[in-house]
Amino acid sequence: MSHPKHGHPDHPVHPLIVSRWSPYAFGDAPVAKDDLLALFEAARWAASSYNEQPWVFLVATKDDPKEFQRILSCLEEANQAWARHAPVLVLACVRQKFSRNGKPNGVALHDLGLACGNLCLEATARGIQAHMMAGIRPDKARVEFAIPEGVQPCTVLAIGYAAEASSLPAEMAQRETSPRSRKPLSEFVHSKAFGKSWT
């Protein structure tokens, strides 16, 4: 069944890509541990430079309210307002240096993005939603979870089952139900020179 947030690609792509989206409204239903483990297994198998796998995930579920609150407190207030309803919060971090030689890993964030992308698609395949947030407080996260130097807190994912948009404030509900849109390929697929469309 189609959802207002399902994409309308110009070229055929896998249905998981079309149906993946990032809700603000989450229901109370918990996510089974086996499902969560499968999401992290999907992240585990993401490609990474030199197979470094620089990601680190800190997990909290509402089964442990104290730990859940600790991650929630690392979000900006605007994100706390809706993310508090998700049954799972995950703080995603990256190790900034290669373990093999101690040199800076300039693509660590890229690799974390791939891991999170895998996680999100596995969630979608299971009927679970994941919403990644840039609006976090990295310095608070570093103190709260004793994150060492050389490891960067990057994003928090809210994970759970989407709820009705009517549970949100009006402005947020409107964003929740408006169609997803994307730039056309001509804006970012170039050839021969930057800015010269390949399509």
The chain-level structural class is alpha+beta
- Taken as a percent bin, the fraction of beta residues is 15-25%
Give me the CATH superfamily: NADH Oxidase
User: Helicity range of the residues?
Assistant: 25-40%
Notes on the protein architecture:
- By secondary structure, the protein is α+β, with helices and mostly antiparallel strands.
- The chain has one domain (15-165): NADH Oxidase (3-Layer(aba) Sandwich), CATH 3.40.109.
- It has 7 helices and 6 strands, in the order H-H-E-H-H-E-H-E-H-E-H-E-E.
- It has helices spanning 15-19, 33-44, 65-72, 77-83, 108-125, 138-144, 170-177, and strands spanning 55-61, 88-95, 129-133, 151-160, 190-191, 193-197.
- The chain has a 4-stranded antiparallel beta sheet, with helices on both faces.
- Helix 2 (33-44) crosses helix 5.
- The relative contact order is 0.21.
- The mean pLDDT is 96.
